[in-house]
UniProtKB/TrEMBL annotation:
<protein>
    <submittedName>
        <fullName>Putative membrane protein</fullName>
    </submittedName>
</protein>
<dbReference type="InterPro" id="IPR036938">
    <property type="entry name" value="PAP2/HPO_sf"/>
</dbReference>
<dbReference type="Pfam" id="PF01569">
    <property type="entry name" value="PAP2"/>
</dbReference>
<feature type="transmembrane region" description="Helical">
    <location>
        <begin position="109"/>
        <end position="127"/>
    </location>
</feature>
<keyword id="KW-1133">Transmembrane helix</keyword>
<feature type="transmembrane region" description="Helical">
    <location>
        <begin position="139"/>
        <end position="159"/>
    </location>
</feature>
<feature type="domain" description="Phosphatidic acid phosphatase type 2/haloperoxidase">
    <location>
        <begin position="20"/>
        <end position="125"/>
    </location>
</feature>
<dbReference type="InterPro" id="IPR000326">
    <property type="entry name" value="PAP2/HPO"/>
</dbReference>
<keyword id="KW-0812">Transmembrane</keyword>
<keyword id="KW-0472">Membrane</keyword>
<feature type="transmembrane region" description="Helical">
    <location>
        <begin position="20"/>
        <end position="40"/>
    </location>
</feature>
<feature type="transmembrane region" description="Helical">
    <location>
        <begin position="82"/>
        <end position="102"/>
    </location>
</feature>
């Protein structure tokens, strides 16, 4: 999704500053998310009082990508840009909530992941308002809507969690990684 939005932005508008800012912020947010996960898995660095073991990658990516994508695809004649952006953040919020509902993340992990991703998209969107890209062709919007509809049903798991686990094992030189249950057992006595 990010690559699609970035490609359209690159092709459709002469202003590269918002695109580069967004990609830099998106990369920085992804790196921060990775660091928090590896720090916990490899060394047990979390916050027990907040039930925090690392930023939610789903929440971060959704908040970083969907508002930008919605703004990029919105026709100002049909949907005011601010409402498209609100819709993008609303979709990101639903995705974030789903992570708590299925027990994949705690509320703090989701809220902080959403905040980091939301900051990345907000900065890019503030820069972008000076030079909005033209609306993509209808076939692109229809194709994207179809992909968004089918993706949750047919997409295979990405395997990124396994990659993060392997990285944490390699960096920490541990055979067994820390888990959420360990976070609550690591509380200092007293």
């Amino acid at each position: 999704m990010a690559l699609l939005a970035a490609a359209w932005w690159w092709w459709a508008t002469p202003s590269r500053r918002p695109l580069f800012a967004w990609l830099l912020l998106l990369g920085s947010a992804a790196f921060l998310t990775l660091v928090t996960k590896v720090a916990f898995m490899g060394w047990g660095l979390g916050i027990e009082a907040l039930d925090f073991t690392g930023l939610s990658g789903h929440s971060m990516l959704a908040a970083a990508i969907y508002p930008v994508l919605a703004r990029t695809l919105a026709s100002p004649a049909a949907v005011p840009p601010r409402w498209a952006i609100v819709a993008g953040y609303a979709l990101a919020a639903v995705i974030s909530l789903s992570r708590v509902v299925i027990g994949a993340h705690s509320v703090s992990e989701v809220v902080l992941g959403f905040a980091v991703g939301g900051a990345a998209s907000a900065v890019a969107l503030m820069l972008e308002t000076r030079h909005p890209p033209p609306l993509p062709k209808h076939w692109l919007v229809v194709g994207l809507a179809g992909w968004l509809t089918l993706m949750p049903v047919v997409a295979a798991p990405s395997g990124t969690h396994g990659m993060v686990q392997r990285l944490a094992k390699a960096l920490s030189d541990r055979d067994v990684l820390f888990t959420r249950a360990d976070l609550h057992r690591l509380r200092p006595p007293g």
